UniProtKB/TrEMBL annotation:
<protein>
    <submittedName>
        <fullName>Pyridoxal-phosphate dependent enzyme</fullName>
    </submittedName>
</protein>
<keyword id="KW-0663">Pyridoxal phosphate</keyword>
<feature type="domain" description="Tryptophan synthase beta chain-like PALP">
    <location>
        <begin position="14"/>
        <end position="305"/>
    </location>
</feature>
<dbReference type="InterPro" id="IPR036052">
    <property type="entry name" value="TrpB-like_PALP_sf"/>
</dbReference>
<dbReference type="InterPro" id="IPR001926">
    <property type="entry name" value="TrpB-like_PALP"/>
</dbReference>
<dbReference type="Pfam" id="PF00291">
    <property type="entry name" value="PALP"/>
</dbReference>
Amino acid sequence: MNKTILTDCHKRIAPFIHNTPVLKSTLINERLGCKVFFKCENFQRAGAYKIRGATNAILNLGDAQRRNGVVTHSSGNFAQAVSLASRSLGVPAHIVMPTTAPKVKKEGVVAYGGQIYECEPTVEARQAMADKIAAETGAVFLHPSNDLNVIIGQGTAALELLAEQPDLNFIFCPVGGGGLIAGSSLSAKYFGKDCKVVGGEPFEADDAYRSLISGKIEGNETVNTIADGLRTTLGDINFPIIKKNVSKIVRVTEEEIIVAMRLVWERMKIIIEPSSAVTLAALIRDCQEIPSDYQNKKVGIIISGGNVDLNQLPF
């Protein structure tokens, strides 16, 4: 792995993605005592960073593979991303979604041309149905986070952030399946200047926090979190990258997630989903517990997405 792989990926997917804006909030900076730069992937195509990895993965397939299509399982954002990327590239998309997936995300998949297959909301049920579809159709399985081409693609958000703010001291990412934080940690390694990567994770789905402590992949004991995009677990491809390159993971409560989400909505006037709010919540918590680490430092935050069911707002 080297920086060329990331830059080549960015050039490859650039025609199919947005280079999203980096926003700031004077009020948040003053409250936290540091300069915060929000990489707003809520303005990305399909409303989340996932289009980056999905596009890169599909572009790396051969012509014969593309003709047979792709299949994935996702609670929403990767489902929409694969559907949109597939439509852009003329590839059939089969999407396995749990019955509990937000309605707004299911509607997005349909709008982008993906075919939905519903399953029970367990990792085992998702994978079993995806395997069945792959066997029946010849579609190539794309894992939402544990696929190297997906990981590299997701890392281009941090690459763009560092191109604009090359002297960041920290980058905060949400942690679900681990693809975004693994890719971001690679970008920080190759394009940052001693830039530390910190994960944000709900207490209610803290497998990554426990995995870093134990040194092996742990399962989730609960997934009772409002951050629906973070209910998945790490994989054997992204975990070694995370273990090597991520400084730490900060856990946050459900209340802290909601407070951070509302703060961004009210003060920055942008729509973010709960999974995105976990990153700001983690920074707020860490600034309160060890303020000296962040005083007058420059902190990047990956706002991972903005796909919210407006009928299910927590405030």
